[in-house]
Each structure stands twice: as structure tokens, then as C-alpha cells.
Amino acid sequence: MKPPLRIGILVLAVALALFMAAFLRAYSPVSFGATMPYLQPDQWRDLPPYHLSPQNLRIAFSTMNGTPVNIYILNSQEFQEWEDTGTLNAAISIENQSVFIGTFDIASRDFYTLIAHNPNNETEGIHIDLTLYGFEKDLTLTTTIIAVVGIVTPTIYYISGKAKAHSHKKEP
Amino acid sequence: MKYKKFIRLIIWEFEEFWRLPTLELIIGIAIFFGLSIPAMPSSQALSRANDIEFTAGRLSLFQMFIIAVLFARSIAGTIEKKEILTFFTYPVKRVSILASKFLVDLSIIFIIFASVIITRGLLAQLEPWNILMLIVLFILFLETMFFSSLSLLFSVITKRTWASILLTVIFFFTITSFMPRLEAPIKYAIPTYSAEAIFNCLTVGFRDYTVEDFTVALSSIVIMSIIFILASFTYFKRMQVD
Hints:
heterodimer; A: alpha+beta; Jelly Rolls; four-stranded antiparallel β-sheet; 3 helices; 9 strands; elongated; B: 242 residues; mainly alpha; 79% helix
């Protein structure tokens, strides 16, 4: 077997295995959560950061006394900005909600910090559940690029071989 | 000159791997079992490294089986089919023939499994040069070395492909089921338990394991590998091929 074809098959096998792994990861949701009791009036509280992959993030939360709160999720850069300047520029913002269920897109693989804010005049508690699911965008893109390389390498070799053979035939 | 002949032997051995579908199968199994389970989204580097070490531990069963098959095919199979006699006509020492096969098989297995572990590390934002990743890779190398030396010994002694595979697998399962019943630190003398002990001691210190546990875990895997390799080479040098 010609080396370019052999390399193409090997690269395609890698892409296929990666795709199968990405598929299984997509359908194995990762769930985690936190409870923040006794959130004082106008208090801001952040949780230790989570390392999130670029998937769908399902957020479900409810407050213990039923008063609305604000939830923000910031990536590492946004959190740094929040700490340094106090400017809140969150990747995900959910404001004035006492019960919420929604799905968001995580843009890139990074460390994300969840910040809760109690805008009320009384103490409130929050229970929040987070679920990561779906295809990881960067892994899927890498798999696609590898698959394309696996297809293109032997194809270019095949076409150039054909072209050479054709030009040799034309020569008298 | 001798060096060039040794390189030729290595190239011949690699050509065996290059045949369809050996590499594809190994890479496929390694990627599928190494990357298919997502990690918990912890921000702690140690937790993420622990997940990677756990993945390496889960992979070790497949790794052991692949190593057993490869060594049996490459060494026991060559002796069984008398192809080794062709190698013996090549003007090199017998030791060089076995060394080339051992080095190529060990390197390829390690490179493939290490690549999967590194990929899992990158997905968890742990760079390959991160000290935690280096510890995981060091443990993976020790495990690969142990399984390879064990398979090498059984391949040389049995001279039969299937006998070599079966003996390696039976030996591994016997020690895996028997050793945990023993008291510490003796039970850390087998790779699955020693890997966990070495990782724990090198990352968090001697909190959960004693210095004695660590010494037994590290030295047993290294000493057993060296003994298996020396025994294999000594036997191979004097071996008669019927």
C-alpha cells in the first residue's frame, strides 16, 4: 500500500475513534450543583470556579423564600475584570428570577465562576443545578479537521498520480 | 556499523506495525476508552490530574491486553513460525534482535497511550509539561514497562503466541485478585495499586500512604521489570529453536 493512502487510513481511523469518543461524551451529561443559604440583602457571593467545556449548559435554580435573585456566570477574563474594576460583563446573566430553567451555550473551554446577587431587602437562599451536555465544539472541530486531512491526503496523491500518468500519455 | 544494523532491525519491526490494521486498532482502543468519559468540571488542577490518573488506571487493562497480544505476535509468533531463524542469519547479536523488538513495541504502545493521556490533559487544561501531567506520564511509562517486560518473558519462554497471551493475562488477573488481600505495603507491589500509591505520594505527600508503601510501590515495579527483562534476554541468548 502506498504511504499516502496508508497515512490517510490511519488518520481516518483516529478521526473515527475521536468521533465515537466525542459522541459518548456528548451523551454523558455531567451534573453538579451548589446551595448558597443565607445570602444577605444586597450581598454578592461567588462559588469556586468550574472548568467548563464548550457544550450546552443547563441551569436550573430556585430561591428558598421565592424572592427573585440575579445569577451571573463569568469566564476567567470577565471574572478578573470584575475583581479588578468591579465591572460586571458576564457570559451568562439571569436577572430577577426566583425559579429558572434554561440552556446556554458555553463559548470556549475555560474556568467559569458563578456569582449570585441578592437584590432584596431580606435574606435569601439559592439552590442551583448545572448540567453540561452535548457535543464539545472544539473536540468536534478537531475531529472534523483530522477527518478532512485523512480524506484529502490520499485524494491529492491519487489526483496527482492520475495527472502525471495523463501527462506521460500525452508525450510522444 | 553495528548501530546501522540495529536501526535496520528497528525499521523491520516497525514495518510489522505498519501493516493494516494493527496501529488503527491500538489507536482506536486507546482513544475510545481514554477519552469517552467526560471529566468533572473541577477548577482544582489536582482533581483534574486525579481524573487523568484514574483514566490511565482504567486504560491499563486494555493496555495490558494489547501489550500481551503485540509481544506474543512479534516475539513468540516469530519463534513459533521459525521466522526468527532468518533474523539469526543477520550479522547481529541475538540480544540486538530481541532488544529491537522490545524497544519498538514498548515505544509505540507508550507513545499511543501517552498521546491519549496528553489529549485528555489538554481537554482539562493541563499542559503536558505540567508537573502533575509529568507524574501521570511517568506512572504510565512504569506500567507500560512492567507489562512489556512480563509479556516479553512469557513470549520468550513459551515460544507460542496463544500460550504467551494467555499466561500474561492469567498472571495479571491472578496477582490483581490475590494481592489486594495482602497487608500493606505488600499489596502495593502490583501496577494497578502501585500507580495509585505513587501518584498520591508524589502529588499530596505521605498523607494517605507511608514512605514504606511508596518505596514498595515504586521499587517493586522497577525491580520486577528489570528482572523480567534480564531473564528474557538471558534465556533468549541460549534459546534453542527446534
